[in-house]
Request: fold
Amino acid sequence: MSDTDNANPLDRRKFLKAAGLAGAGVAAGALPAHAAEPEKVIVEKQEWNQALGAGVQNAPYGKPSPFEKHVVRRDVEWLTASRESSVNFTPLHELDGIITPNGLCFERHHGGAPVIDPAKHRLMIHGLVDKPLVFTMNDLKRFPGRINRAYFLECAANSGMEWRGAQLNGCQYTHGMVHNVWYTGIPLKALLEQAGVKTNGKWLLAEGADASGMTRSIPIEKVLDDCMIAWGMNGEALRTEQGYPLRLVVPGWEGNMWVKWLRRLEIGDQAWEQREETSKYTDLLANGKARRYTWVMDAKSIVTNPSPQAPLKQKGPNVLTGMAWTGRGSIKRVDVTIDGGKNWHAARIDGPVMPLSLVRFYVDIDWNGEEMLIQSRAMDSTGYVQPTKDELRKIRGVNSIYHNNGIQTWLVKKNGVTENVEIS
Ligand code: MTE
Ligand code: CO
Reply:
């Protein structure tokens, strides 16, 4: 599915900081109330209580209500060169809490999503090890020390189109290359201990079983620290698109390293300098030099509601919400402004705050119908504060599409319509 709203990507203008924006207060005033008169819909008979509903086993695998059919991953036509080497985006503005439902996790693959028979899938560990090993899926599921962890995965190219100015009109498109999932699997350290990494084993190469045969090198310190191999997501098997039957989990580091359809792990004494870590996932600076090995995803946040795909419908009480994440430690606080940065308010973080996992934040606002310029700013446990886009551009230039964690601005107009803008 493509989205015609984004047909004119360069249409979005820079928004000059307007004086005297006073769109709302952040403390809630009157709570939403209903008319004293009973509404027709509550006193009338409805078709759904006049006949029996669907019986059990009508849907052996449950699906969302038909009224939710707009809640889907979407792609952008001008970003889709071919279906097999492409990306679609998580509908962040339709989600809440911290867990991304399996069917809505964005997909990024370089050679299509293969359907792999788990009975024929193998994981090989070899290279600088005492004992090369091959595991079946059954072997892995019998392996002691199984763990469950929630981690965000963000593609390094998330928000990549925004380096050159506000372009895509919706957080699904500007920030939707992120998901947060409970993984079930085994620490990679446990498997490597069985194989016995030789003392000169300093790097790990991970390879996928898909047609792209995607490979990445990962330093052994990270591998032994918190990497895991996972066959489960959110309590069930991985989805085909997410790497069924096995994927690598590299917490806090760029999504490209999380090799899907994982088939081979090789230990070596240096990085392999594969395509995905040289010509790709290397950030060309303005002076012609490039930053490489930019693995960690810096702290970032986004207001998901209101946003261009989720405009405000009514004055008065409204719930502003969004999410924040960091590749270093955990999120400490999120500040929100509704007047383009003149005043900042600490948002309320609700739900578990786990390292390298998304957090959910809320600000209850009372909107008086005037324009608002909304931003959120995350701070993590290292003290790092999410920068503005202009601060990033000053250091990094605009050559690269990777690692844009700059602060996002939404302009809420008087009629509630919300647009992607930048403040300068
Ligand atoms: N692994 C394999 N084998 N093939 C791929 O094309 N794409 C990578 C990574 N792992 C890829 C892969 C990229 S660029 C990203 S951002 C993540 O997978 C996306 O994970 P997801 O599709 O589960 O969202
Ligand atoms: Co990616």
Summary: The pocket of cobalt (II) ion (ligand 2) is lined by residues 108, 155-157, 255-256 (CB under 6 Å). The longest strand covers residues 178-187. Residues 25 and 366 are 5 Å apart (CA to CA). The longest helix spans residues 188-195.
